[in-house]
Structures are given as C-alpha cells and as structure tokens.
Specification:
The protein has 203 residues and is mainly alpha-helical. The protein has eight helices and five strands, in the order H-H-H-E-E-H-H-E-H-E-H-E-H. The chain is 41% helix and 9% strand. The longest helix has 14 residues. Bound molecules: flavin mononucleotide (FMN).
Length: 203
C-alpha cells in the first residue's frame, strides 16, 4: 500500500506532498501570492459549499457521466493545467494524462510542460486539452494551435490572467535565504532545501 492509498481527504495529499517534495517546489504549489488573501477566500468559499443529499430516490445505479464539448466523459471533472507536474514526479505529465484517460476525464497539458504534445497523445491518449498562454508572436501562437488540433487535442484552455508574473513573496524569500547562505550571512544549517526551476523563479 503506497502513501497515496492512505490519503482520504485533500489534506492527506498535502501532508504526503510536503514529506516527499523538495521544500521550494512544495511551497510553490502550496502558497498563494502576496498576503495569500485570495487563497484563503477560495478555501473558505469551498468550505461553505454543501452537496444536497437526496433520499429515497433510487440511487442503486448512479451515473455521473456527462457530455462536454461533444465528448462523453465519465465524471464532470477535468485535470487542470499545472506547470510543475513534470517536476513533481518522473514523467508526471504523462502519468497524469494516463490516469485521466483511464478515468475517462479530460487532461489539460500546460504550455510550460516538459512532455511534448506528441508523447501525451501517443502514450496516454484519452481526451486531451491544451492550455495556452497567448504569445505576442501571433504566428507562433497559431502554429501551436494548429499543431494541437492536428494531433487530436480537443479543446484549448486559454489563460488570460498571467500578463505579468505575480509577486511571489514566498519564492523571493526562499531565494533571499539561499543568497544569505552563499554570502555567509546565514548558516548553511538553516539553508532551505531550495529548488526553484529557473522559469518559475521571479528574479
Ligand atoms: C502548482 C500550480 C501550477 C499551475 N500551472 C498552471 C499552468 O501552467 N497553466 C495554467 O493555465 N494554470 C496553471 N495553474 C492554475 C490551475 O490550472 C487552476 O486554474 C488554478 O489552480 C485554480 O484551480 P484550483 O482552485 O482548483 O486550484 C496552476 C496552479 C497550480 C497550483
């Protein structure tokens, strides 16, 4: 039985990830921006939601499947794009795509993926969506869209809220702590286990 089999609620996954991942990578996933107000609001909003329970309505046969963009999916859920999936696990994007195909739900490949679109389609299959940060270079943006369509990607998830890098104070604090160690201002014993992939570092 692996650690994941002992995860029953989302907090269990978080604790397992904290144990396994390099510190900086865990913080990147776990933290929000600045004072993390939106993060706290989102958690509070989800805590307020309740599922409406129905009784005596014959639930022997349940079918949560639904149709989305003309495709039948087994459950009204899709895997959202996550830029660091390939760093959290060896071939993490491929693993996620295979899991999604097995569960018959869509998988969204981030445009910052470490795995090519070709490999995802060939080795995982299933319903694949591509997430796109529209670039200034329109020709290249359209070329990417054409390629995704030709490979059989079903939908585009266009991200429009990343026009500039958010103020990631957590990342900056980690980087500063690392610099302090290097210039001798702090002891190497206090050194954070820093691991921020270059494209994710803000400075
Ligand atoms: C670690 C992490 C990486 C993400 N990477 C991307 C990305 O590469 N592209 C993107 O469009 N959204 C990215 N997102 C945003 C998610 O796809 C999602 O829209 C967002 O987390 C809101 O969903 P949630 O409330 O379920 O977390 C990322 C989110 C997280 C937490």
């Amino acid at each position: 039985m692996g650690a994941v089999d002992r995860c029953y609620v989302i907090d269990d996954f978080r604790a397992a990830a904290r144990r396994r991942l390099p510190h900086g990578l865990f913080e990147f996933i776990d933290r929000g921006s600045e004072r993390e107000a939106s993060l706290a609001d989102n958690v509070a909003a989800f805590m307020r939601l309740r599922l409406m329970t129905k009784f005596l309505v014959g639930l022997g046969e349940r079918d949560p499947s639904t149709e989305l963009f003309g495709r039948r999916i087994a459950f009204p859920l899709a895997i959202a794009p996550t830029g660091v999936a390939g760093l959290c696990w060896f071939e993490g994007e491929l693993a996620l795509a295979k899991a999604a195909a097995k569960a018959r739900i869509p998988f969204t490949l981030t445009s910052t993926a470490l795995t090519s679109m070709e490999r995802i389609v060939k080795e995982a299959g299933g319903i694949c969506w591509l997430q796109l940060f529209p670039w200034k270079e329109q020709d290249e943006t359209f070329a990417l869209i054409d390629k995704a369509r030709d490979l059989g990607f079903d939908a585009l998830v266009v991200t429009i809220d990343w026009l500039s890098s958010p103020w990631e104070q957590i990342a900056l604090r980690l980087l500063q702590a690392d610099r302090d160690v290097r210039v001798g201002k702090a002891s190497a014993n206090n050194r954070p286990r820093l691991f921020l992939p270059a494209p994710l570092a803000t400075k």
